[in-house]
Each structure stands twice: as structure tokens, then as C-alpha cells.
Design the sequence.
């Protein structure tokens, strides 16, 4: 279909989309919006950057306009930054009906968020499972506001439903909201995992939830497909000089492009970001400026400041853990560097999906040590294609060894002086005890 009104959306929602310069539905929007408008349960599968938030936001708002009252919809997502982004899109599309939303995420006062629910009765609550579940467990007056929820959305469902990290929180939330027979359930994901398939029935009621996907999601042989605008490369490097190769990439290979660097751990993220600040201070304008994003940053405002600094191009480089791998809309990222590969091979798809968005050309390049070759092979199997090996003259790269090593030592010293490792230890202890 060529327009949103042909999909069955009300004029006010179509006008709101037009005001956001969204005039033509994407393939996944055309496929999913009519199904969700009918009230059916569904699994929405489409690559990152294809407009999946609008797929569920528009039908939720239209259904709410028919019968406006209290907490009508709950949207759960694994990352608080993504929750904020979803809230912004709901607010923009729902402006014509005076939509009220509430965030339930860490980094903000629980009491303040609870008061919004009990006093203002927002229509849509968007949050992370941990914060919402914690609040529902201890605040009966808040829990009572969720008794008439009509729609449940699990965004980034493959992560929410994988492993045990969110299992108890999701279970406690399900005990409060209406049963699956009394609500519409929407699972949204960029990758369809066996876990999502297994739980289609569990979350969707008596009938198996249909999977709605666009033609770019999965190749004919069943492999996940990455956008054709992204080139996937890797460099085989000794672990001890991984940082030196990163220095070379940022200074020589990609000296002006916007870059997201992904690390496996919080500590590695902080070390890489601090090292870059030390070894790129002489680059012109903001080419050496770096922002850092991980879950140990104190206060939500610091995390948003880091993300905003990169989005607004006040920093050319963003170093992040996988909190930035999913869903975040940063349109003009040219390069993704995997400083360390995730042991979860599907995470590769989410990470590299941060570049090559909206038809732009993107490059994903991974620094691979001997110990990560098996992960590389697993990723290639997952995406159904091989990555391009690249190399650079070793003597040229190692010219930066001294400067890089000095920068890293200074970064390590900063962590020691600020008590970073003790804070990280306490953070891990708190997460384990939950």
C-alpha cells in the first residue's frame, strides 16, 4: 500500500505521521498495521531501522481513541534509552488525542513515576521489566491501575525472552495485567529466535501468534539478512595490540566518519573511551571527541547526555556496550567497529544495524583475535555470508604502539583514582542479588 490512510489509520494519526515527514509506510508497516488494527496477536519481525515502533504505536493509539481510559497499553523493552525513544514516538503520533504516557525505568525516582500512574492515569506505560515489576510488587495502588490493560507490547522480544535475565520480572508483570485471553499481545523483534517461537503460544493465547515479516528479514535459506548497504569486514589482530589497531582505524582509515565502537564489558567500554580521549586529542575540530555509554554511568541524565552528544555530532565517536546495540535511532552512523565480539552471535546483527540506516552506506569492521575465530564463523553462519578480511601494513600500524600504550596506562590510572572497579563490583553484586 502506498499511504497510511489505505492501511485503515484515522485521519489524525495520518496527519501526525505527515507532520513527522513520514508519508509512505515501509513494507513491515504495510504488512502489520492492518493485522494489529484488527486486534489480533502477532509477532512483528523486521530489520533494525525499518520503522517497527510505528507498526504498534499507531494501532495502539487508534484503539485507545475509541475507548480512552487509564492504563490501556504496556510496552516493555530491555533498555531504558529505547524506552525513552518509544515514548517520544508515541507522544508525537498521539498528539491529536492528547495521549498521556509514563516511563517506568531506572535512573529516575520510583516515587515520582508511581505518582504519575496513580494521579494522572496515563494511557501508555513504557518501561523496562525490572523497574515496572519492582514497582508493582511494592505498590498495590499502582498495580490496581494495570487491571484493565488491553494491549501488551514486548519490544526487542528476542532479548526479553532469552535466558533468565528478565524471566521473573516478566512473570510478576503478567500476574498483574489481564490474562492473555483478555488482551492483545504484540512481540516485536529484529531477529526471530527459537525462544520467541517457543513462547508464541505462551504469550499469545490459545492460537499460535502469526509471524509477520518483510522480505528483507530472512533469506530464502532461512538466514538472517543484513541491509545490503552494509559491508562486513574483519581484521585478524593479536589481542595485545587490539587497541593499537583501533587507534589506526580512527586516525587513518576512518578519520572523519561517525563511528560507534562496541565492547563486550563495561570496564572495557570505559577503558577504550578514556584511551581514545588520550590518543586522539590532536585531531582537528571534533574528530577526536568521544562519548561513552554503558549502564554504570551514574544517573539517567549522564547516559542521555552521552547519547545526545553523539546524536548532535558534538562527538564523532561513541564507545558503548550492548545497551546501544538495539533499536536506538541514530540515522547517520557511517562505521561500526566491534572492538570485541559478543558471545551472543545474534547481537552482531543488532550492533552492525546501527550503521547503513535509511539507505545510507555503512561499514562494519570487527577486530578478531585467534580466540574469537569460532565466534566469527558462528556469525557468518547466522547471517549466511562470509565477511571480508582486511589488513593494514603492520609496521605502519605499530608506529602508534607507544602512544597507544601510554594512553591506555593513563586510562587505567583514571579508573583506579576514581574507584571505578569498586563501583563496578557493587553494580554487579546488586544485579546478581535481584
Sequence:
Amino acid at each position: 500500500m502506498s499511504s497510511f490512510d489505505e492501511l485503515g489509520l484515522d485521519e489524525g494519526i495520518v496527519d501526525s505521521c505527515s507532520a513527522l515527514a513520514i508519508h509512505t509506510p515501509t513494507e513491515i508497516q504495510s504488512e502489520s498495521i492492518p493485522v494489529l488494527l484488527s486486534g489480533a496477536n502477532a509477532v512483528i519481525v523486521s530489520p533494525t531501522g525499518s520503522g517497527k515502533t510505528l507498526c504498534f504505536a499507531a494501532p495502539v493509539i487508534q484503539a485507545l481513541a475509541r475507548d480512552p481510559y487509564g492504563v490501556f497499553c504496556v510496552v516493555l523493552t530491555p533498555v531504558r534509552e529505547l524506552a525513552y525513544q518509544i515514548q517520544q514516538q508515541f507522544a508525537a503520533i498521539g498528539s491529536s488525542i492528547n495521549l498521556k504516557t509514563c516511563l517506568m525505568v531506572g535512573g529516575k525516582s520510583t516515587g515520582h513515576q508511581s505518582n504519575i500512574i496513580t494521579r494522572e492515569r496515563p494511557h501508555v506505560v513504557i518501561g523496562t521489566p525490572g523497574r515496572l515489576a519492582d514497582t508493582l510488587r511494592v505498590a498495590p495502588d499502582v498495580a490496581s491501575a494495570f487491571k484493565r490493560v488491553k494491549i501488551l507490547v514486548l519490544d526487542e522480544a528476542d532479548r526479553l525472552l532469552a535466558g533468565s535475565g528478565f524471566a521473573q520480572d516478566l512473570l510478576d508483570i503478567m500476574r498483574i495485567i489481564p490474562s492473555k485471553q483478555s488482551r492483545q499481545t504484540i512481540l516485536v523483534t529484529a531477529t526471530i529466535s527459537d525462544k520467541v517461537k517457543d513462547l508464541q503460544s505462551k504469550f499469545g493465547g490459545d492460537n499460535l501468534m502469526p509471524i509477520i515479516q518483510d522480505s528483507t528479514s530472512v533469506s530464502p535459506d532461512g538466514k538472517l539478512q543484513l541491509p545490503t548497504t552494509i559491508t562486513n569486514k574483519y581484521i585478524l589482530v593479536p589481542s595485545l595490540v587490539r587497541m593499537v589497531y583501533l587507534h589506526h582505524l580512527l586516525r587513518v582509515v576512518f578519520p572523519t566518519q561517525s563511528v560507534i565502537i562496541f565492547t563486550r564489558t563495561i570496564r572495557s567500554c570505559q577503558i577504550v573511551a578514556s584511551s581514545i580521549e588520550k590518543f586522539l586529542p590532536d585531531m582537528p575540530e571534533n574528530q577526536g571527541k568521544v562519548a561513552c555509554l554503558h549502564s554504570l554511568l551514574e544517573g539517567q541524565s549522564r547516559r542521555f547526555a552521552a547519547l545526545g552528544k553523539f546524536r548532535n555530532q558534538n562527538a564523532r565517536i561513541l564507545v558503548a556496550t550492548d545497551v546501544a546495540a538495539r533499536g536506538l535511532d541514530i540515522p547517520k552512523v557511517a562505521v561500526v567497529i566491534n572492538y570485541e565480539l559478543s558471545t551472543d552471535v545474534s547481537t552482531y546483527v543488532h550492533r552492525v544495524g546501527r550503521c547503513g540506516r535509511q539507505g545510507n552506506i555503512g561499514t562494519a569492521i570487527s577486530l578478531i583475535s585467534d580466540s574469537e575465530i569460532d565466534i566469527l564463523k558462528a556469525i557468518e553462519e547466522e547471517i549466511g555470508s562470509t565477511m571480508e578480511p582486511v589488513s593494514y601494513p603492520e609496521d605502519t600500524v605499530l608506529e602508534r604502539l607507544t602512544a597507544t600504550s601510554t594512553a591506555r596506562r593513563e586510562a587505567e590510572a583514571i579508573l583506579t583514582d576514581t574507584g571505578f572497579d569498586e563501583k563496578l563490583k557493587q553494580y554487579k553484586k546488586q544485579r546478581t542479588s535481584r
User: Anything to note?
Assistant: The chain has two domains: 5-213, 230-433.
